Amino acid sequence: MTSATAAEADLVMQLQTGSEAAFRTLVERYQDRIYRTVLALLRSPEEAEDVAQEVFVEVYQTISRFRGDAALSTWLYRLATSRALKNRQKARAKKRFAYFTSLLGFDNDVLHEVPDYAHPLALLEGQQQLRLVLDHIARLPDQQQVAFTLRHEQELSYGEIAAVLNTTVPAVESLLFRARQTLRKHLQSHACHV
């Protein structure tokens, strides 16, 4: 057992006894990574903040059931990506409902303006190209998008991504290959039309 693994096991034990100090340590250690992962999937800082908080609340409430079959970080990424995707599905359902109510002539208070996406990279030159890439990433199928985000935003290894997605390394390689192929095709076709 490495010292990092031992430290994580110790943290989990402390969390399971209800230690507030251990919970603060957990949040300090993982909040930025979890927030950035969720932000990359939801593209709304406000929603990402809410979902990240929900992840830590869920950890606090369910840590007693954590068996240690996977690394603590793997479990956190699973919770974060799962909650982000559920949040996105709810938002889509809400938009569809709003669209249909507007078609039927009802007062439409459900539909909200989509907030501008304030990703730190957007400050760099080529803001339009970044937005285009992010829009195409957002259109990838869920599993491809999660794999792509964990690989390129969080720089997780293929093995870590496989653990988060509860799949194999070859399956992750395939997801990433298809995601890159799709992105390349869309970006090349966009370049041809410019």
TrEMBL record:
Keywords: DNA-binding, Sigma factor, Transcription, Transcription regulation. Residues 26-92 form the RNA polymerase sigma-70 region domain. This is RNA polymerase sigma factor. It comes from the Bacteria. Residues 133-183 form the RNA polymerase sigma factor 70 region 4 type domain. InterPro entries: RNA_pol_sigma-70-like (IPR039425), RNA_pol_sigma-70_dom (IPR014284), RNA_pol_sigma70_r2 (IPR007627), RNA_pol_sigma70_r4_t2 (IPR013249), RNA_pol_sigma_r2 (IPR013325), RNA_pol_sigma_r3/r4-like (IPR013324), WH-like_DNA-bd_sf (IPR036388). The lineage of its organism: Bacteria, Pseudomonadati, Bacteroidota, Cytophagia, Cytophagales. The keyword Transcription regulation applies.
